[in-house]
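hey can u check if this looks right to u? its 387 residues, i copy pasted from the old doc so theres a chance i mangled smth
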Amino acid sequence: MVAKINNRLIIHLTIVITVLSQLESLRQSFRPLMYVMWFFLIGLGLIRNNKGVRITRTTKIFAIFYLLFFVFCLLATLITKRDYLSGSYLGTMIIPLAVSICMGIYSSDLSYEDILSLCKTFVIIALIYGIYVNAQYFPSYSSWLIQRRYIFASKNSAAQIWSVALFLSFFMPKLTKVKRSCLWYIICVYFVFICALSQGRTALLGITICSVIYVIVSSKHKIRWSIITCVIVVAALTQPEIRQFLDQALLITRYSGQGVNAFSSGRVNGYLKAIESILTYPFAGVGSYYIDCSYLMILAETGIIGFAIIETIWISRVVTNFRWKVKNNKSNWKKLVFLITIFYIVESILEGLPPFGPGVSSFMFWILCGATVDNIDFNVLRYNALD
């Protein structure tokens, strides 16, 4: 019993340290500590688990293909003399892989309530992170309205954390049947607000798409909700203050009349250059490369070979999550994981490192997948009984 309690406490502490490692003021000390904590969890689990470690099919695919990717990068560097080992994906995928392995090791020790508790810890620390960023970078609303450049450089990675926390907050009353459901919905609104203040436009787009899909897939009154939503949006847009807020959050006026490339923060021209690079080096890519589209980035960086390896990991994860959703369409857990998966599909199209990064920003997605989708005990026993 003591061992189990310690395991849970260490996982909670690791989640807190992982989110705090995103803070610029703590990054230098917390980032190495974060890696130590995840690998410590793996080592501790291997030592304590006398019955053997449960490794799921998706984690096996992840581990095998990550090893293949490492071998590919090593050979490509030796053969082409270009640097593949310092490429973005080789380092970025380490934490999602470590998280997946950890969830396999500890899933049999995690009850339904334990998983909820991990989710609450993540939401709370994400909320603290948001409040800190709000106070540190956007202390004055009036000064934010007139800013003409990105103030918070880590907006994209932070917006991933806040968006996942938003989905968890929205579903928390449905998963726990708590009395203070209004508090969770207020937290949801705040996460949208801080994403907008940070001008995380890709995250806001992902949240919007997921909201539409949720209404279409889950609502029993789709037409009614569609009409209500349209009325609310039209009414809101008639308010000058709201229009001003949206204009600044989405940078509409800033890029007015400058074309699609400017509005997309240079993505269009970047895509064209990436395609040119891909056509020049189609099989193994050019080594280290960055563009705001994970698929083009992988092709440019590692070519068709690297693309096939990495996308096997991602596609297997998406297919597994979607199949899990189909088995019981009414489960709130399945709706939650389904929407977060959709969110990361959007992110992967318009950002370079999701669903694996940047940094450790996507780690909670992989925790949820391991703790629910891949957790045999959760699906067979606890899930049927409690959700």
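The longest helix spans residues 294-327.
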